[in-house]
Amino acid sequence: MRIACPHCGLRDVQEFVYLGDAAPQRPDGLAATEAAMFEYVYLRDNPRGLLEELWYHGVGCRAWLVVRRDTLTHAIEYVGLAKSRKAGAAA
Amino acid sequence: MRKQLHRLNSGGLIDRTQALCFRFDGKNYDGFAGDTLASALLANGVRLFGRSFKYHRPRGLLSAGPEEPNALVELRTGARREPNTRATVVELFQNLEATSQNRWPSLGFDVLSLNRLAAPALVAGFYYKTFMWPARFWEKLYEPLIRRAAGLGRAAAVEDPDHYDKAFVFCDVLVIGAGPAGLSAAVAAGRSGARVIICDEDFRLGGRLLAERRQIDGRPAADWLAAILAELASLSEVRIMPRTSVFGLYDHGIYGAVERVNDHVAVPPAHQPRQRGWRIYAKRAILAAGALERPIVFPGNDRPGVMLSGAVRAYVNRFGVLPGREAVVFTAGDGGWATVRDLTEAGAHVAAIVDARSEINPESKTMALRVGARLFAGSVVEATHGGQALRSVTVRDASGKRARLACDLLAVSNGWNPTLHLTSHQNGKPVWEETIQSFVPGRLPPGLAVAGSAAGRFTLAEALRDGARLGREAAVEVGFAAAAADPVPATDAETDGLAPVWRVRGNRGKAFVDLQNDVTDKDVELAAREGFRSIEHLKRYTTLGMATDQGKTSNLAGLAIMAEQVGKAICETGTTTFRPPYTPVAIGALAGHHRGKDFRPVRLAPTHDWSREQGAVFVETGQWLRAQYYPKPGEQDWLATINREVLATRSGVGLCDVSTLGKIDIQGSDAAEFLERVYINGWKTLPIGKARYGVMLREDGFVMDDGTTSRLGENHFLMTTTTINAAKVMQHLEFCHQVLWPELDLRMVSVSEQWAQAAVAGPRSREVLRRVVDAKHDISNEAFPYLAAGEITVGGGIPARLFRISFSGELAYELAVPAGYGDAMMHALMAAGEPYGITPYGLDGLNVMRIEKGHAIGTESNGQTTARDLGLGRMMSSKKDFIGRLMAKREALVQADRPSLVGFRPVDTNNRLWAGAHFIGIGRAAKTENDEGYMTSVAYSPNLKHWIGLGFLKNGPTRIGERIQAVDPVRNGEVEVEVCSPIFFDPEGTRLHG
Amino acid sequence: MRYSGFTLISQALRGHTGWRPAWREASPKSTYDVLIIGGGGHGLATAHYLASRHGINNVAVIEKGYIGSGNVGRNTTIIRSNYLLPGNTPFYELSMKLWEGLEQELNYNAMVSQRGVLNLFHSDSQGDAFARRANAMRLAGVDAELMNLEQVRTMLPFLDYKTGRFPIRGGLLQRRGGTARHDAVAWGYARAADSRGVDIVQNCEVTGIAVTDGRVTGVETTRGQIKAKKVALAVAGNSSRTAAMAGMRLPIESHVLQAFVSEGLKPLIDCVLTFGAGHFYVSQSDKGGLVFGGNIDGYNSYAQRGNLPIIEDVMEAAMALWPALGRVRLLRHWGGIMDMSMDGSPIIDHAPVQGLYVNAGWCYGGFKATPASGFCFAHLIAKDEPHPVAAAYRLDRFATGRLLDERGVGAHPSLQ
Amino acid sequence: MAEQAKSIWRPRSAWAGIVEAGQIGVDGKPGVTALTLDDMGFATLIVPPGSPDLASATKRMIGLDLPKKAFVSLSSTHGVAWAGANHWLLFARQQAGFVDLLQSFSDHAAVSDQSHARAALTVSGPRVREVLAKGAMVDLHSSVFPVGATALTSFAHVHVQFWRTDDGPDGPIFEILVPRSMAGSFWSWFAASAAEFNCRIDRD
Ligand SMILES: Cc1cc2nc3c(=O)[nH]c(=O)nc-3n(C[C@H](O)[C@H](O)[C@H](O)COP(=O)(O)OP(=O)(O)OC[C@H]3O[C@@H](n4cnc5c(N)ncnc54)[C@H](O)[C@@H]3O)c2cc1C
Ligand SMILES: NC(=O)c1ccc[n+]([C@@H]2O[C@H](COP(=O)([O-])OP(=O)(O)OC[C@H]3O[C@@H](n4cnc5c(N)ncnc54)[C@H](O)[C@@H]3O)[C@@H](O)[C@H]2O)c1
Ligand SMILES: Cc1cc2nc3c(=O)[nH]c(=O)nc-3n(C[C@H](O)[C@H](O)[C@H](O)COP(=O)(O)O)c2cc1C
Ligand SMILES: [Zn+2]
Q1: Of the four listed, B121, B476, B787, C150, which is most buried by Cβ atoms within 10 Å?
Q2: Domain Aminomethyltransferase C-terminal spans what residues (chain B) (predicted)?
Q3: Secondary-structure percent of chain C, ordered helix, strand, coil, rounded to 5
C-alpha cells in the first residue's frame, strides 16, 4: 500500500504506523466517566468497507494522519492531517 | 566436442560458436549459449529428467517454460545447491552442474518406484483414513516415513555464500512480458516520453515469437523483433529488464519482481548480487504475460516423450533441437497443426495426427497428406507404451477402433490458458470465456490492463494491436501526450479453432491431471464421491495444483473433470485462487541485504568506542548495543566483575554510559500543561532548574514508561525516556498533541542522538565533576542540590547539561555533552576520576544498584503492571485528568490482593535467586492455584553479600517479614525467601543528598 | 463408515468405489435447537462436542463458503500450550490433551504431530521472561524446558550462531507442542458431527440475526430464514460484523495475517521454531514445504491478502536465523482475517441478547485452541454456564480490568 | 590541568572508525563517490502553526528563503531544509558561529541543536541513483525529485533525511543525514550497495 501524506507525498506503507479507528473521541477532563472511557479505549465498529483511521508517518514528517480507506479493497479515498481535523471540528 | 544427436544442423536462437559444457547426474554434456538446461539435455538425447512426487514415476519434459511440472533438478552443489529448479528455465552456463532429485539410488533405477505396487491404496487422502493406531506410532513411525518419501529436492545445508540485493524503482507504465503484446505496449508508451519498465522472466525477449515461425509485415518476425528492441533501447526513459519475473501484484500499484542478475553464471562476479528483489511502483501496468498451453488427460500421459505441442515448436524453432524423430501429434484444435508443419520442416517424421475434432478442414487434410502422416479425425490417444521413454501410442478412433503407432514423441495440444495469475492477486476472480474455452481475467485491479494472449486474445494480430493501444492509453492516462500511432503491422494468417478434450477415459494406466503431485483423474472422481466437491476442497483433498508449478498446466483439467462429476458447467465451479508468487522466488532475494548482522540496524552510543577500549562486553537492548560489564584480566567470572564495579561505585565513584536514554525537547507555553496530561503526577509547580521523576500510563491504565523530566526554562522541558521505549513515547506524545490536543502550544523534537550522557555516581562523584565542569559553575551541594538540573559548560566552553539525579541511590550526576564530545567526556571523566579510583560500570552493575534501591525498570513495568502494582499509586494526582487515569481505576486493577512490588531475600543467604521464579506458600503444592506472584529481577548484592530480588506478590506490602517459596521448576530451584521492603540499601536515602 | 487401514485396503481392491461422502451436503431445515454460524474449526468442533458430549443433535453449522475456507484452512498449524497467564494455561492445556486423542476420537487422521515447539530467546532478560512463562506452565502441569545455547545448537545446528544481529542465547521448548494438518481438523470434526446428525450447510451466509424481546429467535441467510433456540457465533475474523447483526460492538479489530510456504523439500527441520527477536516462525509440513509465519500486516483488513513489507520482513528473519535458506524458494503466500482482540486473548461468553453466544477474538492463536474452544463453547451453550477452564474469557473483562494480556502491550490490536 | 583538559576535549567525527578514505568494489572509473561531511551544524526549528516571522528571520539572518514544501534552500555556507509541518532543519557548513546563530533564531522558533545528532555525507556520481534505489522508497527521478528537493524517509531500515543539491559534472548530488548512532549500519548497507559500481570515498 501507499499513503499520500499531505506533507511528504505518496509513500510506502512501511513508513507509517497504524493506530486504528479514528472515530472514537477521547472523553477529556475530570468529568469523563469510566463507561465513556471504556468505550473509547475498547469498542470498535470494525466495518468491512470504508473506515477512517489514524496513521502516523513515523519515518517521514511525523504527522498523524486521518486516512479514509476501504478495509476490503484497501483503496484509499482521502488523507488528511489529524491535527486539522480537530481544529476544524472546533471551528 | 561431444555430438549432440538431437541438435538440428541449423536454425534456432542459440549461439553455435559458443559451446558450453555441463554435467547432469555426473555425466558430461555439451550445449550452446542460448540453450536452457532442458534444451541442451534434449539435444543430447536425454529423455528422463526426474521422478514424480508420490509414485516416483519416470518423467520427462512436458514444457519449455515456467509451467514445467516434471523436469525439476538440483542445480549447483554444496552451499549453492538449489533444489526444485525447472530445467526449462535454467539458462545454460559453462560448467553448470545439475542432479536429478527425489530418487534413490539413481534416476534410472529408483527403489521408491515400488510405490506403484501400493498405488491402489495410495489414493488421494489415503493418509486421513489410516495410521491412527496405535496413536503414538504417528510421530515415531508413520510420519517420519511419509516425510522421508515426500518432499522433492534437498536444500543446501550450509549458509548461502551469495549476496542478494533489494531495490525500489518507479515508473509510469510497467509492462509485464516482452512478447509481441508487451513490446508493442512498451514502445507505444515509451514513445510518448513516459517512464516505462518492461520486464520479462526469459533471458531473451520476444515471447512466443521466439518459438514460432511467424511473419510480420511480410518479413520474418525476427526482423520486427530486432527493430522494436532497437527502438526500445533508444528511448532513454525505457528500462528493459530481462531475466526479471514479476511475481506479485500488491496494493496501490506495487509489483514485486525478482531479477536473476547472475543466475546464468556459476558464481556471481565480485561485488555483484546473485539476484535482486525489486519493488516496482507503477502508475499503470500492462500485463502481457502470454498464455500457457494445456495438456490432455489420458492414460499414460506422463510418459517421457509426451510433450506440449507449443513446447515442441519452441525446442525446434528456438533451440534447434528435435525432440523426436517419429512423432504423433494429438490435438484438440488448430494448434497441433503448426507443430506438424514445424516438425516436418525440421526433418522429423510425423507418423500420425490425432485430431479430436471430427471435422478437419481441407487444407489440413492436404497437409497431412503432404507430410505423409496418417490422419485420425474424431480420435484420441488412449494409451502410451514404453518404459522410461515413449515407444508407441494407442489411438482410438471415432468408431472405437484402436491402432498402435510407433513414435518417440507425442505432441499434445489442447488450447491455451491466459497467463492471468497476476490479475487474481488482489482477489480478482477469472471469468469463463466460452469462445476460447478458458478462463480470462475478470475485474482488474486499479491501474492494470491486460494485453494479447494474457487477455485471451490469442492471435498475433491481436497481441500487436492490444499492445499498441494499451501502451498508448496508459501513457495518456498518466499525463503524457499520445505519440503518433504507427499502423499496427500486418501478420500472416492464423487460425485458432478448438474443441478441448478434458480427458480421455481408457482402461490401461493412470491418467494424470497434476503430474507433479501425481493426482489422477480417478483421484478427482474419488474426491467427488467423498463430498470434496467444491474446487477448493478438491484442491486440498487431492493436492491438485499445490506443487511447485501451482497447477499451471493442470488446474483447468481438474476443474473440468470435477464439473463433469457433479454435473455442472465449468463456469459454475470457478477456479481456485491464484496467489503470489507467480513463479517461486528465492528467499534470499526477498531478504536482500538484511541478514546476519545487517538483519536490522544496530545503534551505537557515541561512547561506544570508549567502552570497547575499556574491554566492555556488550548486550542488545532494543536496537542498541550497550556495555553490560567491563571485565578486567584475572577476574574469575562476570559476577566478580560486577561486584567490583558496584563496590567501587558505592565506595568511591563509578562511571556509566547512559547515552541511549530517549531525550525529548519540549517547548511552548503549554508544555507544562501537556506534561500534566501525559504524566500521572504534577508538573506545573516544577521550578526552573529542577528535575522530577514522572510516570506515564497507557490509556488503558497500565504503566507505559517512566523517567525524569527537567525544566530548563519557563516554557522549556527536557524529557527522558527509557532506552527501549524512546520511539514509542515520542509517537505517543505526538499522538497526544496532534490528535487529542492540537490546541496546545507545543513544540517537540527528539534530541536523543544529540547528547552523550554519563552517570557519575558515588560519594566522590562531585569531586570528579568539579574537575570537569568549567570553574564558573557552582556545583556544591547547596548550589546544585539533589534534583537540580542546569545548562553548564565543560572543557572550557563546550555546552553541557548537568542533572543531579540518581538511579544507583548514591550521590550522583548525569552529565550530557554534544555527542561528538561523548568520547572526550568519558576520557575526561576517567582522567578526572583517576585519583578516586573511578570505575566504569555497565548495565549489570547499574541493575544491581537499582535493585538494591528498589527502582523498577522494564522487567517490572512490563506492560502488565499498574502504577499501583509498582508501589507508585500515590503519585497519581486526583486533581487533574491524565492519560490512563480512568482505566487504572477499574475494579480488578485496584483490588487489594493484586500482586504488588516487594523485595525478597533468601532465608539461607547462600542461596541464589532466579528471575522468573513463582511464589508459592510454604508447604503448599507447586500449582497454579497456589501461585501468588513472581520474581522479576534478581541480583547479587555485594553490599549485603547475598542475593536480592524484586517481584510481585499478592498483598505484597502487607506481608513484609513473611516467608514464602520462590519455586523455579524449569531450573530445578526452590528457595525459601523472606518478603522485605524493595529498598535494600540506604532506605533513608541519605546518600543521595550527600 | 469407519476409516482404517483395513477399509482402505478393501476399498482399494474394489477400485475405491464404495467410499461415501465424509459429510452430507445438507440443506437447512426450518428450525434447530442450536445454530452455529461459521464452519471453521471452532464451529465444527462445537457441533461435534454438542452432539457427542451433550446429546444435542438438532444442530446446524452454517457456513458462507466451503467449510474450512476461513482461518482453519489458512493457518500455520502450530499447536502448543505454552502460555503464561493462569486464565489461559489450563484452557490451552485442555486443548492439547484433546489434540492428543483427537484422531481416535474422530476416527480421522488429522496428523497431530508433537514435534516440539522451540521459542528462541536472545538476551538474559528475555530468558528470564521465558523462565517466568515456563514456570507458570510447569505449575499448571504443562511440560516446559528451558534450553541453553548448547542444547539449542545440538538440536538445530544450522541456525546462525555466529553473525546473528540478535545472538541466540537459548530457548523455551515444549516438546508436546507441534503441528496438525489444518484442513483435516475441519474435515474430521465435520465428519464426526455429521455422523451424529449435525447438518453442515455450506454456501449459506448469515445476513441477519433475529431478536425478539431481547431473545434470539433465528437467523436470516442467503438461503432463507432459519429458526433456532440458540445461536452461536464462531466466525473468526468476521466476529464484529456478525455481532453487529445483534446490535453488539466488540473489543475487536479485524486484521490480516499472512502465511507462507516454500517449495517441497526433503526433511530439514524437526520442530516448530520461533525467533524471539523478530516476529517469525517456521516448521515443515508433512509434504515438505517450509511453512513460515510472521507478524500481522498491521492494519484493519478483510481482504485475505497482505503486502510486501511483511513478506520481506518474514524472509529477512528467515535468512537472519537460517542463512542456508537463500536458494529455497517461496512457493505461495496468502492471508487470513483474524479478529484481534484488545488484550490478545479470546472471548467465549454469552452475549447480552438471550440465547446468543459468542466465540471470538482468537488472534494469531486460535487453531491450537480448536478442540478446547469447541469443547468449552459446547458446554456454555448446553449448560448456560461457562466451562471452568474457559471462565476467564468473559466479555466484561475489558470493563472490569481482568485482562488476559500475555504480551503486555495494552488495548492495541496491531501490537497484540 | 586546564591544558590537559583542552587536549582531551576534541570532538570526534560521527564517521570515525566507520568510514575510511579509499575505494571499494570493482576496479575502474568510480560510479559513485561518497564524501563524509564533518563539522556541520544542524538544528531543528519549530514554530507554532501559522507563525509568520521565521521566514523573514531566515531571510535576514542567512539570506535564504524558508522552504514551504519538501525543499531545501542552500547557500554556500548555510541551508534550511523543510523537515515536517512547521518544522525545519537549519544547517551551517561549519560549526563555528553556529551556536550564536541559533541564539538569534531562538526568538523566532523553538530551536534544538542537533549538530551532533546526525552523520552527514554527500554522494554523487553517474550511478548514484542506482545505489540509492537499493534503499530509497522514494522516487529519485529528476521529474519527481528535482534539484532542491528533500525527503524524510528510511534507507535500509535507517531513518534519513536527504536532499538534492545542484548537479555536478557527474550528474546529481545528494546530501544524506543519518542518525549518528546508526552511521555504522548505514555505511554497511551503502558500501555493500555501491561496491558493484566502484565507489570512491573521501573524508572531509
Ligand atoms: C495466517 C494465519 C496463521 C495462523 N497460525 C496459527 C497457528 O500457527 N496456530 C494457531 O493456533 N492459530 C493460528 N492462527 C489462528 C487460527 O487460524 C484462528 O484463530 C482459528 O482458525 C479461528 O477459528 P476458526 O477455525 O473457527 O475460524 P475460521 O476457520 O475462520 O472459521 C470461521 C468461519 O465462519 C464463516 N463465516 C463468517 N461469517 C459468516 C456468516 N455471516 N455466515 C456464515 N458463515 C460465516 C467463515 O467463512 C469461516 O469459514 C493463524 C491464523 C492465520 C490467518
Ligand atoms: N495459436 C494459439 O493458439 C496461440 C495461443 C497463445 C499464444 N499464441 C501466440 O503467442 C503470442 C502472444 O503474444 P503475447 O505478447 O501476448 O505473449 P507471449 O507469450 O509472446 O509473451 C509473454 C511473455 O511474458 C513473459 N512473462 C510471463 N509472465 C511473466 C511475469 N510474471 N514476469 C515477467 N515476464 C513474464 C514470458 O516470458 C513471455 O516472454 C502471439 O504470437 C500469438 O500468436 C498463439
Ligand atoms: C500449513 C499449510 C501448508 C500449505 N502448503 C501448501 C503447498 O504445499 N502448496 C500450495 O500450493 N499451497 C499450500 N498451502 C496454501 C494453500 O494453497 C492456500 O493458499 C491457503 O490454504 C489459503 O487459501 P487460499 O489461497 O485459497 O485463499 C498451505 C497452507 C497451509 C496452511
Ligand atoms: Zn509525511
Answers
A1: B787
A2: 901-986
A3: 35, 30, 40
